[in-house]
Amino acid sequence: MTQQIELMLRFDWGAGPFWVSVDQSISDDYSVEDITEVIAVSEVLLAEIAAWNQRYQQTFDHADPASSGIADPEKQKQWVDEGLQLARRLKYEVGPAVQVTYVPLGGQESIISA
User: Fold this and answer.
1) From which domain of life does this come (predicted)?
2) Which region, left, alpha or beta, applies to residue 6 given φ > 0 means left and ψ of -120 to 50 means alpha?
3) Are 86 and 45 in contact (CB under 8 A)?
4) 32-57: b or e for each residue (b if 16 or more CB lie within 10 Å)?
5) pLDDT in tens, the chain (114 residues)
6) For the chain, which residues make up each domain, given as ranges?
7) What is the CA radius of gyration of the chain?
8) Are 102 and 91 within 8 A, CB to CB?
9) Residue 27 has what pLDDT?
10) DSSP bridge partners of 111
11) In this structure, how many other beta carbons lie within 10 angstroms of the beta carbon of residue 20?
């Protein structure tokens, strides 16, 4: 019997950006460096996901965590939209056997179809 792998592209402060669940287990976060231990993803896509994740990670304000994030609503929307495009490319790379989900920061979860 094959394992059911669920792969989520999701931003979380200081974690991820990948969250993996195998056979409906509790999901674990994986860095860009570690995800290839679980599933094959191209180096090009990994580099783009790392840059996307890092852009938001860099906005963390240690002095005032509540003010962290992208303040400009248009730039925030661009970041969310870029994440969706990366999730679609991820789905294309991993194929139909892996469920891919995208969860933007504070946003609605979307299952990405082929």
Assistant:
1) Bacteria
2) beta
3) yes
4) beebeeebebeeebbebbeebbeebb
5) 567 899 999 998 888 899 999 887 778 899 999 999 989 999 999 999 999 999 999 999 999 998 999 999 999 999 999 999 999 999 999 999 999 999 988 778 999 986
6) 5-112
7) 14
8) no
9) 81
10) 101
11) 19
**pLDDT value at residue 90:** 98
d(CA 48, CA 59): 18
Cα–Cα distance, 95 to 99 (Å, whole number): 8
Interatomic CA distance for residues 87 and 97, integer angstroms:
15
List the structure tokens of 16. Answer: 């991820």
In the prediction, which pLDDT does 107 show? 78
Tokens encoding 54: 């890092």
- Pairing relationship of beta strands 5-10 and 98-103 according to DSSP bridges: parallel
Contacts of 86 (CB under 8 A, 6+ apart): 9, 45, 48, 49, 52
